[in-house]
Amino acid sequence: MLSNTPDAALWSGAPPPASPPRRLTHADAVDIWIARWLRIRRVDLLRRYGCDPRRLYEIWDESHFVGSREQALALFSVRYPTLLDRVDCGAHRRISQAPDPAQLSFFEPIE
């Protein structure tokens, strides 16, 4: 879908050779936000940056690199102005896998 974008070439082809894990930088966090909006698969991000998946979610929750989303949005609007209306640039929302106790009332017998 976005194969004609300039950054799409960075993500195509074989993954780079495995390298030892490195610490992510603020610039990496901005790039990870942009890659998320370009719908780059999470597994490709993990291969590219050689990091633990939790590091990505720390960026997306903004518990690390606070303000990187705003910087990425400014850069994204300059690089891809035609995609702004097609991308959800909102904050990351965590969806819990644990059952909600309030839903247990759905299974109570009706009197």
What is the CA-CA span between the terminal residues? 53 Å
Rg over CA atoms, rounded to whole Å, is 18 Å
Please bin the fraction of helical residues. 40-55%
pLDDT average, as an integer? Answer: 81
Oligomeric grouping of the chains: single chain
Proportion in β-strands: under 5%
Structural shape: extended
Count the E strands.
Answer: 0
Q: How does this structure look, described?
A:
It contains 5 helices and no strands. The model has no long low-confidence stretch (mean pLDDT 81). The N and C termini lie far apart (53 Å). It is extended. The chain has a domain at 25-83. The longest helix is centred in the N-terminal third of the chain and has 12 residues, at 26-37. With 111 residues, it is mainly alpha-helical. 41% of the residues lie in helices and 0% in strands. It has helices spanning 8-11, 26-37, 42-49, 53-61, 68-79.
Briefly characterize the structure.
By secondary structure, this protein is mainly α. The protein contains 5 helices and no strands.
Layout of SSEs?
Elements lengths: L7 H4 L14 H12 L4 H8 L3 H9 L6 H12 L32
Helix pairs in contact: 2-5
